[in-house]
Design goal:
The chain is an alpha+beta fold. About 45% of the residues lie in helices and about 10% in strands. The strands form five sheets. It has a five-stranded mixed beta sheet, sandwiched between helices. A two-stranded antiparallel ribbon has the order 2-5. It has a two-stranded antiparallel ribbon with strand order 3-4. A hairpin with a 2-residue loop joins strand 3 and strand 4. This is Reverse transcriptase domain-containing protein.
Length: about 425
Amino acid sequence: MEKFIRDAIMSHMENNNLFTTHQHGFRKKRSCVTQLIEVIEDWTRELDKGNNIDSIYLDFQKAFDKVPHKRLTEKRKGYGISGCLLTDRKQRVVLNGSESEWTDVTSGIPQGSVLGPTLFLLYINDLPDVVNNIVKLFADDTKLYSVVNTNAEQDRMQNDIDKLQEWSDKWLLKFNTTKCKHLHLGNSPAPIYYMNHLTLEHSTCEKDLGISIDSKLKFQEHINKQIKKANSKLGIIRRSLSYLDKNIFLTLYKSIVRPHLEYGSSVWSVIYKKEAIGIENVQRRATKLIRSISHLTYPERLKTLGLPTLQYRRLRADMIQVYRILKGVDTIQNHTNILPISNSITRGHSLKISKQYCRTNVRKFSFSQRIVDCWNALPDNVVNATSVNSFKSQINKYWKDFNLKFVPDCYEPEAERNTTRRNGSERQCL
């Protein structure tokens, strides 16, 4: 029953364009990745121009528990949604057979329910409208950001923080000020911001929807964390099982190890060969766990197991994400500016993307820039596939003969696996 109600509400909100474009949580065609691509594209574009950016990461105090039912009802009616929801709910505590009195539930949305997240989206939907700068949302995960080069722009950012505080007080959804953070990107000194008469803590790295974003946008800290997590899971497999055959290994590796190395790969980028080698070495060590093939070289082990290199999978994931955006499978705000279609009449397919000039590596290795050459080189039958699954199949066939799948550009021979070079070649860009 809740699914019927949720679908009706979402259909009403989407068809009438009532949802803010900045909300990516619990909505079709939107995800953590689509939001982060929008944000990182904004940031790298401005950093490439030499601008500075301030981002305020906001944290609500038990957001889902604190939504007042009466205020939610008023907002729901404002969007043209009538009927009875969240009425006559009661709760009590049972401890060791003793029961408390029933009491009315006047706040909080039902957690673990189908309808709960949708109701929260309705409640927080107007938050981006109260500020002048940009607010991005994923359910209750909120960040405010803007270019800040002058004192006037700093004052405008502080004014937006004050407006968000006023919204919080009005709608009884309090911020946890001690957990709100300020991330500064750029070469200028980081300014100071205040919330609720407290100085916001300055951070050099923030975890944003599962991806660690550092102040230089090089993602080295994120990559190192994910390598550490993957190696930890690999250690659990090694210690728990004395014998691994091909099928057991592939099931465990694909489900609990590899996802740590690939989540959101279209958002973060591997700039240096050292990071690419570090990621690939996790899979190299993993394939050594199968004793029957441990004597083979890494490319030979991959062919035996039917595993592509992680470098290949990142490249393929980028191409799939481009296809999803251009074909409308994923919704990206201003996607025609992020991935502008070229007007060139030279040979190639009809969806070639224009290449832009980049001053910095941060911009050069951002999603919209690093994919251009590879995407434009694809044939027309691949980019115009009829579905995402068809695109995946077509690109696998096209790349089959290019030796991309099993031998990475960053491949390090087995004999050198225990040798850590400290020369400049380790830091070369891919």
